[in-house]
């Protein structure tokens, strides 16, 4: 299917739009993800790393190995939850990363970062 990419701080702007123009925001989300024949069914979310990317930094969900993931730092998760709330079917969500937070120095650390973040998103949304 077709989808949106939440990366390079773009969803932060969209969440500002949601706060300032909620009716228009929900109209957009309904147009993209709602109805019997949605335009899109996928949200791809960049895992932030607290470092600058091409257009701006995305916040990391975990800033140390032992920190509980703060998934509200990444607005892409809220976007995915909003999309699912209007969808008549399942929204497919995938994660990508351009770089890792400084504390992630091995594949095992990356596994912990992704796994703990995914579980926290499930609990939050």
TrEMBL record:
Residues 1-125 form the Glycosyl hydrolase family 59 catalytic domain. Signal peptide: none annotated. This is CAZy families GH59 protein. InterPro entries: GH, GH59_cat. It holds the Pfam family Glyco_hydro_59. It comes from the Bacteria.
């Amino acid at each position: 299917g077709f989808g949106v990419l939440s990366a390079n701080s773009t969803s932060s702007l969209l969440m500002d739009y949601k706060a300032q123009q909620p009716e228009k925001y929900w109209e957009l989300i309904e147009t993209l993800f709602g109805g019997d024949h949605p335009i899109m069914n996928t949200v791809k979310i960049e895992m932030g790393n607290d470092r600058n990317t091409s257009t701006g930094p995305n916040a990391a969900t975990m800033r140390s190995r032992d920190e509980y993931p703060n998934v509200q730092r990444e607005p892409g998760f809220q976007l995915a939850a909003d999309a699912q709330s209007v969808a008549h079917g399942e929204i497919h969500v995938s994660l990508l990363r351009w770089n890792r937070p400084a504390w992630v120095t091995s594949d095992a650390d990356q596994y912990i970062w992704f796994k703990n973040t995914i579980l926290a998103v499930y609990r939050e949304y």
